[in-house]
Amino acid sequence: MRSVINPAYRAARTAAARTRCPSSSSSFLPTSSAAASRVASNNSNNSVVDFRRFKSSLPLPEDDHEITESSTTSEPRLDNNTAPDISDFTSDPLKAGTPSPWAVFDAWGAGEGIIDPLSDDEEAMLSPEMVRIPIDDEDDGANLPNESDILAVYDKLLKRKSSVHFGYPYNLMYNHEELYEFMKYSINNLGDPFITSNYGVHSRQFECSVIDFFAKLWKMEADSYWGYVTTCGTEGNLHGILLARECHPDGILYSSRETHYSIFKAARYYRMDAKAIPTLPMGEIDYDALAAEISKNKDRPVIINVNIGTTVKGAVDNLDRILRILKTLDIPRERYHIHCDGALFAMMMPFVDWAPEVSFRKPIDSIAVSGHKMLGCPMPCGIALTRKEHVKKVEQKIEYLNSVDTTIMGSRNGQAALYLWYSLRKKGIAGIKRDVVHCMETAQYLRDKITEAGLTCRLNDLSSTVVLERPMDDKVIKRWQLACEEDIAHVVVMPNVTKPKIDKFVEELVECKNTFGRMQPKREDSPLKKLECSSWGGLAVAPVAATFHEDY
User: Fold this and answer.
1) Cβ neighbours of residue 290 under 8 Å, at least 6 residues apart?
2) Cα angle at 78 between 73 and 83, to 5 degrees?
């Protein structure tokens, strides 16, 4: 019997062919200052500004017809691989979720212009029907597209999404082409990184080199530390809090309300008593509230999570002030344990001039940091580092491995350790410093541009996370993949965030404001309302005035 070809497949095959031979009309932002100047000059000579350009990166029509109301009110294609009825990133409806200064680390153009959205035909190629896996004899998959065509479209989708990635702290500017050859190996660092198991296909030598690097970066003495390459920052937090509980089984965990969710997840997993401490408007822990809570429970050991950059506002808790509180309350060293969640900024802080020191020269016990955030890596990964004496409390000999069990995971991705080692070797201290300076300076540029646009915007001193009032149009949020919390959103400036992209982003914010208005604070103490507090320092546009009604 002759098989019937799925019409969607036929259209998708055509789309895939076009994907492999992209049209020269694709719209890209200028990547040189000269090109940018030409664009600015052309725009200044036009009496009519086509705001469709601000809503979409699709090429403009060839004809030079007059722009009418009807031609600008049609729904733009911002991200047509997203279903119109898609839910927000969480169940809470309030939470939707320049080339790098070191341009050699840009394997596929993350720092270049904005890539066009997928067409309808390309979108169909990635539908559940097209990517399904045949499972029975009657369905041989003959009317499905082949894997190469699907992957070609998927590659275009990822390039598109990566070109408008603003809301999450991932450095997309990297080049690991030299390591592709090693992807054919099943590299598994199962067991402890410092005790080789019987499994020989591992990357322990590279993993130990990475741990040594961070031990020196955070001022640990030789032979005093232990660590490993994790799957992500969350695993590092789970490990750090586990060690804290093993050292102080009856301790209370104190952390700010703006702490990453993984800290309180650890408290639930390990059935620990935990206190969520209020925060200051900028996102730091409320030090007076922390002191009061510790004072109430002086009969129990103190476990503190110190944030080296909070999730939403990028706020850094003052480690020295927290240590001063412990000293003032006469908490002896053997009665407290400090874990530092440094997912993003602990990697950056050592390279910021005149920043406070967070290191093991101070009485801290562990640090967790993400590897895929500041360094950049194609797979999520991280580093957990602690004092060697703490890990002895969880160490167990595993005869099957001929190693010891000290980590959260059993099998561990040896590729991640290799990729981190490669990035550190290629970048070096100077390269990381250059990336950090780029992020900090570009974040200030973004803050200033949003403020000039008449929108509320703030930036903590030790941060590249720019906090702003939430755009009223959810399409803008989804297009730029902004992370939101109630009435605010944020942009995390990473090496792949460039000034031309920022200019485009701010243009769309302005259009959004002109079309839909500005976000009003949800309540008197909402996140947006806290952005007008003078404790942030500097000048800022005040949020829109709102009337709050008491609930009876």
Assistant:
1) 254, 277, 304, 322, 325
2) 105
Read out DSSP for 295-335?
HHTTTS-EEEEEEBS-TTT--B--HHHHHHHHHHTT--GGG
Which residues does residue 229 pair with via DSSP β-bridges, in sequence order?
A: 383
Tell me if 87 sits within 8 A of 474, measured CB to CB. no
> Which residues are within 8 A (CB) of 16 and not within 5 positions of it... i.e. 6 or more apart?
122, 125, 145, 149, 150, 152, 153
Of 184, 185, 204, 182, nearest in space to 401 by CA: 204
Write down the pTM of the prediction. Answer: 0.79
In this prediction, residue 172 carries a pLDDT of 83
Element (H, E) at 549: none
402: alpha, beta or left? (left if phi > 0; alpha if psi -120 to 50)? left
Q: E strand or H helix at 548, and its extent?
A: none
The DSSP annotation for 82-110 comes to S-TT---SSSSTT------SSTTS-SS-T
> Looking up tokens 């003032």, which residue turns up?
328
Q: How far is the C-alpha of 200 from the C-alpha of 187, rounded, in Å?
A: 9
Specify the pLDDT at position 112: 63
With beta carbons less than 8 A apart as the criterion, state whether 447 and 457 touch: yes
Residue 7: CB atoms within 10 A of its CB come to 10
**Does an H or E element contain 400, and which?**
none
Rounded Cα distance, 305 and 324, in Å: 15
Task: Give the pLDDT mean for 328-349.
Answer: 96
Q: Which residues lie across from 473 on neighbouring strands?
A: none
Contact in structure between 229 and 189 (CB atoms under 8 Å): yes
d(CA 422, CA 176): 8
> Which residues are part of the catalytic machinery?
463
200, amino acid identity: G
CB count within 10 Å of CB 541 equals 18
Half-sphere exposure of 111 (CA within 13 A, CB side): 26
Closest CA to 389 of 221, 185, 206: 221
- Read off the amino acid at residue 177: E
CB 77 within 8 A of CB 44: no
pLDDT of residue 174: 83
Q: In what order do the strands lie in the sheet with 252-256?
A: 225-230, 382-387, 366-370, 336-341, 302-307, 252-256, 273-277
Tokens at residue 227, please?
């660590």
- Look at residue 282 and give its three-state secondary structure: coil
Residue with tokens 């004072």: 295
Tell me the β-bridge partners of 305: 339
Phi then psi for residue 277, to 5 deg, are: -85, 135
In DSSP terms, 488 is beta-bridged to: 469, 485
pLDDT (0 to 100) of residue 99? 36
Burial class (CB in 10 A: 0-12, 13-18, 19+), 470: buried
CA distance 368 to 263: 11
CA distance 524 to 545: 11
Whether residue 107 is predicted with pLDDT greater than 80 in this model: the reply is: no
CA–CA dist 113, 496 (Å, integer) = 11
For residue 469, give the 3-state DSSP assignment.
strand
At 109 the pLDDT is 54
pLDDT at residue 482 is higher than 80: yes
